[in-house]
Amino acid sequence: MTSASPIAALVSAAAEGDQQAWNEIVDRYTPLVVSVIYKHRLRPADAADVNQTLWLRLVEQIGRLREPEALPGWIMTTTRNECLRVLRVQQRTHLYDPLSAEEPVDAADPVDLEEELVALERRQALRDGFRELTQQCQRLLTKLMSDPPPSYQTVSEELAMPIGSIGPTRIRCLDKLRKTAAIGRFIGGSPAGGRGGVLGAASMGK
User: Fold this and answer.
1) Using CA atoms, how far apart are residues 125 and 144, in angstroms rounded to an integer?
2) Contacts of 89 (CB under 8 A, 6+ apart)
3) Measuring CA to CA, how many Å separate 44 from each of 33, 77, 92, 114?
């Protein structure tokens, strides 16, 4: 990340009370929070409590973050710690009957924070880069990333494009996506070779 990191700018604005920045942080990182909670297999009520606690703690701490660019990692670690705290409380208070059909609640496998963080950043970079493309590229890539993918004949009819131009245009659009500022920041902020597959998901429709 550079000093001009969009994450740092969001954190700074939110810390100063910018509601739009807060909304964007919540929208962007709620999927990450939900993913970490899900891996710990919490009960619905506990999951809701963890989610609420995470955002309350961020409200308290956002102005004190020493490295604003590390916000995703802070969110992941705080969510994970809160999940483990809830599970420890459950284990201390839940009396397990060995004759009961109900299974005891076990802690989930440790969350691979680095893997989760890279996956989140990859998805966000693709979304941000996609918004930088022309409308033609957005429409074409959206069609080709459908599951199952449509035939070139169908794409040709729906987008009024010659069949022979679909493949070359798709390649050009992916090349433009690769060169967007969002993708450049993502690739530039990783160790060599660590995130080289960012466009693989886009080209395969994932």
Assistant:
1) 19
2) none
3) 14, 20, 19, 26
pTM of this prediction? Answer: 0.55
State how far the Cα of 25 lies from the Cα of 13, in Å rounded to an integer.
10
pLDDT tens for 132-166 read 999 999 999 888 887 677 888 999 999 999 999 99
3-state secondary structure of 94: coil
Q: Which of 16, 130, 27, 19 is nearest to 75 (CA)?
A: 27
Between 1.10.1740.10, 3.40.190.10, 3.40.50.920, 3.10.450.50, what CATH number should domain 1-98+106-111 receive? 1.10.1740.10
Residue 69, number of CB atoms within 10 A of its CB: 16
Q: Is the peptide bond before 168 cis (omega within 30 degrees of 0)?
A: no
Q: Which long-range contacts (CB under 8 A, 24 or more apart) does 71-75 make?
A: 71/7, 71/10, 71/11, 71/25, 71/29, 72/7, 72/29, 72/32, 72/117, 72/120, 72/121, 73/113, 73/117, 75/29, 75/32, 75/33
Domain boundaries, the chain: 1-98+106-111, 113-206
